[in-house]
Amino acid sequence: MKKFFKIAATVVAFAFIIAFFGAVVFKYVHDVSNVGRINAQTEQEKDKAGEELALMEEQETLIFYDMESYFEYLREQGAAEAGQYALDEIGSAHTNELNYLAPVDLPSDATLSSIRVDGEGTIFTYSLAREFPTINFSTDDDVIIEMANSIIVKIYSFPDFVSDHREYARNLAANLGATSLTTTENSDVYSGWVYADVLNTDINAMQRIKIGSQEIAFLPAVNGKYNTQYGVVKYTYYPLSLTEDEVENLVSYTVEPE
Amino acid sequence: MNSKKLLAIVMAALMFTLALVPTMVGATTTYPERVIKLLIVYEDSYRYFAGDAGIGDFPERMRQMVKLAEIPFKERWNITFDVTVKNYEEIMGVPYTYYGCDGLWKWSQEDPTKREWIEDGQCSCVSDEECFNLTSPGHHNCATRYLNALRNFVQYQDTYDAVACYVGHSLCYYNYREQEHSYCAGMSTGVSYVPAYVAVGIYDIVKSESQRFSNLLSNRGLLWHEFSHNFGLPDGNEDFTDPNNCTENFPCTMSGGYGGVVYAKSIWCPNCEARFQYQAIGSLVGGDN
Predict the structure, then answer these.
(1) How many Å apart are CA A175 and CA B220, to the nearest integer?
(2) Mean pLDDT over residues B89-110, rounded?
(3) Given A163, B3, B26, B89, which is the most exposed site by the fewest CB atoms within 10 A?
(4) Is residue B44 part of a domain?
(5) How far apart (Å, rounded) are the C-alpha atoms in residues B163 and B160?
(6) Around Cβ A121, how many Cβ atoms within 10 Å?
(7) B172 with B122: CB under 8 angstroms?
(8) pLDDT value at residue B194
(9) Residues of chain A found within 8 Å of residue B278, distances taken between Cβ atoms
(10) Residue B279 included in any domain
(11) Smallest CA–CA separation between B90 and chain A, in Å?
């Protein structure tokens, strides 16, 4: 019996070892052939590629530099009455179809840079005038300074062929490197850090810093349409210089009912 | 060897194997580092409108734009850009737009050596039908003519893998499918053998200084979209039964969704990721062998 156990145990041990080395060899061969396949595929596809030119159609984009002009545009579009409601009131308190959302309760030093309306949605960009807390070295990088002093809020608008807004928000969050923060029956919020490579002129080298965070939210649709398919998808970029209270306040919205 | 020792060896082998299996099974393909030598040129119309937007140091601004645009290429495909930024005139010669066209620009009265570009200007030197007739001079702001100049340039030099041109005026083309003259924000050679694209760098003629950052993100979006064409990706459309389309309910730079987004690790839907021809442009670090 003892001998049998020894033999069985030895066989099992060798089987694991062989399986392990087999898997390692398989993985190596798979990786090498995968890279080879990519090379071959590219050459073939390069050869057969046509000369057809690829176009990015110019889409109609409207830009407003103040809220009044934006609201005027909304009124022209048929929004009969403009009202201000908090986002969590939507659906329960109002029967009108949700038409537009716009941030309110912004930091006192935030000034509106622009409101951009195109086929993807409405993008509100604000500029802040404050020192950025985590850059504790010298830099003359204009873009980083602009990133550190900007707030961006985007309310997505979807064409009919986007059939599931909640799934869209989830996929957007995944591509942005954001992870789930909260989820309820009717809403999801995802959050992720934003990094930037900054030239540290003190040491003349690039340095990766955390510069802000971005939030992707799926929020319930209005008018009692609480379902998982249709709803508001909102993207927000917060620079790190915002305080927790300021971030908290930014969840309030102006609602423009139809 | 007694049975306890043997059992210990077996358990050790088992645990060792189990510890390695997830990394073997779950690992995704790691792409070797690829560098693309990208030349970006911008011409007078870009300088004119971008100057109004408070952008003075054009080469540095373009480099910053490419640095932002590089993030998803680096994160997803391990592709980086070695960027050179030049004046169009310096490297490509005189653009077609400069040859007299009242619809696009006029000489400045204050300084007769400088052009004043017309906002939303459009060439009307020839009829719309002639715009894509290559035996005709065509419109001065015709995108395909810019693209042809870029393609010729890339084809006969060894310094750059790809070239992109940013202009400040509109770009027109003749849409054969719809049989109508139209305008585009950008045009790319697709995955043909000379990667090039032309784009309206001052898209929407955003001239306010407060729009500097938004305009940078807009230029970055043009690079994402047009350059993705050069890796073999088609435009997204509304028909999800089309096998060449983007993945349904997924943002993708080929169908939209990343405008205004500051940071993304990937900008392609799963269908486009599967089609992305990683080796279409550039070379591996350390050689392609």
Answers:
(1) 17
(2) 89
(3) B26
(4) yes
(5) 7
(6) 21
(7) yes
(8) 79
(9) 38, 42
(10) no
(11) 26
Mutate to test the interface with B, among A175, A230, A236, A238 (most CBs of B within 10 A): A175
Average pLDDT over chain B reads 84
Mark yes or no for CB contact B260/A152 under 8 Å: yes
- What is the DSSP track for B184-232? EEEEE-TTSSS-EEEEETTGGG---GGGHHHHHHHHHHHHHHHHHHHTT
Rounded to an integer, what distance in angstroms lies between the CA atom of residue B101 and that of residue B125?
A: 7
Q: Which residues of B touch A5 (CB under 8 A)?
A: 3
Chain A residues with CB under 8 Å of B266 CB are 175
Q: Is B149:B92 a contact under the CB 8 Å cutoff?
A: yes
The Cα–Cα gap between B68 and B218 comes to: 11
- Structural domain range at position B41: 31-235
Q: A85 CA to chain B: closest CA distance, Å?
A: 25
Lowest mean pLDDT among A80-94, A173-187, B41-55, B267-281: A80-94
Q: Per the domain annotation, does B193 fall within a domain?
A: yes
The count of residues in chain A is 258
Q: Specify whether the CB–CB gap between B259 and A154 falls below 8 A.
A: yes
Sign of the CA dihedral with B89 first, then B94, B95, and B97 last: positive
Distance in angstroms (rounded) separating the CA atoms of residues B191 and B211: 33
Indicate the DSSP class of residue A24: H
B180's tokens: 């109508």
User: Which residue, among B45, B50, B43, has the nearest Cα to B65 in the 3D structure?
Assistant: B50
> What is the model's pLDDT at position B10?
64
ipTM of the complex: 0.84
Chain B contact set for A12 (CB, 8 A): 10
Please report, for the domain that includes residue B204, its CATH number. Answer: 3.40.390
CA–CA separation, B211 and B10 (whole Å)? 66
Q: Judging by DSSP bridges, how do beta strands B162-167 and B196-200 pair with one another?
A: parallel
Provide the residue ranges of all domains of chain A, joining segments of one domain with +. Answer: 1-54, 62-257
Return the structure tokens found at B163.
């070239």
Q: Identify the residue among A55, A63, A69, A155 best suited for mutation to test binding to B, counting B beta carbons within 10 A and taking the highest.
A: A55
In which residue ranges of chain A is pLDDT below 50?
A: 28-51, 79-98, 223-227, 256-258
What pLDDT, on a 0 to 100 scale, did the predictor assign at position B25?
43
Tell if the CB–CB gap between B185 and A59 is shorter than 8 Å.
Answer: yes
Contact between chains at B210 and A195 (C-beta distance less than 8 A)? no
Query: What is the sign of the dihedral through the CA atoms of A74, A80, A86 and A88?
Result: negative
In-domain check, residue B166 = yes
Could you give the number of structural domains in chain B? 1
What are the C-alpha distances in Å from B200 to residues A10, A56, B84, B103, B242?
70, 10, 19, 17, 29
pTM of the complete model: 0.80
